[in-house]
C-alpha cells in the first residue's frame, strides 16, 4: 500500500517571536528558518513510519521549488509531475510565539495550478490524501472533484480540511464529504463546520453529515476523538510532553495515523500511535519533526 498525496508542498518561512505584533505594529524575530512544509510534513511523517508515498501535486521552478524537490528527494518521497516552468512553489509565513502556538499567512504558487489531465489513476490499495487547501484553489478544485467522483469504492480517501474549512465552497465540501473515508481535523475545524463547541459532539455531527466517512478530531494535548460508524465516539488520550513548537503537530498525527491504517491497525490503536507521534513532534523545533518508526516504538515501550 502507498500514500498518494494530492495536497500542496510549500515552503514555510518560520519566524520565532515572543508575541504576535499588534495590528500595524512590528516585532523582532529571534530566529528565522525556511523549510519545506504543507503536505511535505504529512508525507514525511508517513514515510518515517514505513508508508511509501508519492507526491502528485504541482511544484514550481525557482528557489522554493528547488528547495522543495531537494527535501522530497532526501525524505525518499517521489513526485509525479515535472516542475512548472513559469512559476515558483508558494510559501507560508509562520509565526511561532512563546507558547508554541503558530499563526500562518499563505502565498500560493505552482501548487495551486493542478489540472485534471495530471491526476493519476490510483491502485486499489492506495490511500489518497486530500487537503482542504487544494479546494480553495480554482484550478485544483476543478481538477480534483470530477476525479474524486470517479474513484473506485475500494480506494480509501483521507480528507484534512485545514484551518480555512469555512472558506471551502459548499458544493466542493459536500462532494468531498460524500466520498471521503476519513475526516481528520482539529477541534476548532470541526467546530467551524458544525457550530458545536464540544469536540465529541462536533465529531459525532461530522460523522452524521458525511456520506461514509469515519471521523478523527484532534484535541491537542488531550489526544483525539475517533468516531467510527456504528460505535460511540471514543476518547483516545494524548501524552504529556514539554511542547516547544506546535508547528506540524497535526501533520505528524495525520502521517502516523495513515501509516497505522495502511498496516491494518484498528482506528483507535492507529490514533494512539498518532497521538504519540504528535507528542514527540512538538518537543522539537521545526515543522517536519515527526518521529521515525523506531523512535515511536521506543517511546511507546517506555511508557
Overall description:
This protein has 303 residues and is an alpha/beta fold. The protein has one domain: UDP-N-acetylmuramoyl-L-alanine:D-glutamate ligase. It has helices at 39-48, 63-74, 138-149, 170-179, 187-194, 199-209, 249-262, 267-281, 293-301; strands at 3-5, 9-16, 31-38, 53-55, 78-79, 91-96, 102-107, 127-131, 156-160, 182-186, 214-218, 223-227, 234-237. The strands form 2 sheets. Strands 5-4-1-8-9-10-11-12-13 form a 9-stranded mixed beta sheet, with helices on both faces. A 4-stranded mixed beta sheet has the order 3-2-6-7. Helix 3 (138-149) packs parallel to helix 4 and helix 5 (187-194) packs across helix 6. The chain starts with a strand and ends with a helix.
Give a quick account of the main beta sheet: strands, pairing sense, barrel closure. Answer: 9 strands, mixed
Helix-and-strand structural type: alpha/beta
Number of strands: 13
- Which topology does CATH recognise? UDP-N-acetylmuramoyl-L-alanine:D-glutamate ligase
CATH homologous superfamily placement: Ribokinase
Keyphrases for this structure?
9-stranded mixed sheet, alpha/beta, 303 residues
Provide the fold topology:
Layout: E1 3-5, E2 9-16, E3 31-38, H1 39-48, E4 53-55, H2 63-74, E5 78-79, E6 91-96, E7 102-107, E8 127-131, H3 138-149, E9 156-160, H4 170-179, E10 182-186, H5 187-194, H6 199-209, E11 214-218, E12 223-227, E13 234-237, H7 249-262, H8 267-281, H9 293-301
Parallel strand pairs: 1-4, 1-8, 2-6, 4-5, 8-9, 9-10, 10-11
Antiparallel strand pairs: 2-3, 6-7, 11-12, 12-13
Question: Brief overview, please?
Answer:
The protein has one domain (3-7, 39-60, 75-83, 110-301): 3-Layer(aba) Sandwich (UDP-N-acetylmuramoyl-L-alanine:D-glutamate ligase).
